[in-house]
Write a structure and sequence with these properties.
Structural class: mainly alpha
Shape: globular
Strand order of the largest sheet: 1-2
Radius of gyration: 16 Å
Oligomer: single chain
Order of helices and strands: HHHEHEHEHHE
Strand content: 5-15%
């Protein structure tokens, strides 16, 4: 089985759509706040860690880059007490990129010394995928898609790393 690329994930997220039953299931399995819409596998514990590392203040501007439905970014800015949309590129104080950073051809050169492998995040993700795969068959197409993706994760051995990269504007 070939490794999924950006086009694969674009199609998969599109097929998943916003389906309340699937969203509630995935949010619960990942341990996220109930209102967070996730199209990724970042757990609630990992999101708390990212929030602490970013330490967004009320005037911070977060660029949510290629993060699906922006659920994580919206949650982070809400925690910081910030609620306006729009972006002046010169005002960006932090960037969030969840599950899209693995696509550059030379990942190491892209992130240099700023990336840390997060095997604990990958382990937590695998627990969530195992729970999805072990669910009884569903008639809900979104849940079926989620279960099919979970089976693919285990069939291909999940070739992706989970990495946390941080940087601050000088």
């Amino acid at each position: 089985m070939s490794e999924p690329d950006a086009d694969y994930f674009t199609a998969w997220y599109s097929d998943m759509g916003e389906v309340p039953d699937k969203d509630r299931l995935w949010t619960r399995l990942l341990g996220l706040p109930r209102h967070v819409l996730s199209t990724s596998v970042l757990t609630g514990t990992a999101l708390d860690e990212v929030a602490e590392l970013l330490a967004l203040g009320q005037d911070a501007v977060l660029l949510d880059l290629a993060c699906g439905r922006a659920g994580y970014g919206l949650e982070l800015v809400a925690r910081a007490g910030h609620d306006r949309d729009g972006l002046d590129p010169a005002s960006v104080t932090a960037v969030l990129c969840v599950d899209a950073a693995q696509f550059p051809p030379d990942f190491t050169a892209t992130f240099a010394d700023r990336a840390r492998s997060r095997e604990d995040w990958l382990a937590d993700e695998r627990v969530a995928w195992r729970a999805v795969v072990d669910l009884p068959p569903s008639l809900d197409p979104a849940v079926q898609s989620l279960q099919a993706e979970g089976r693919r994760v285990f069939e291909r051995g999940d070739p992706f790393r989970r990495v946390l990269a941080t940087a601050r504007r000088p």
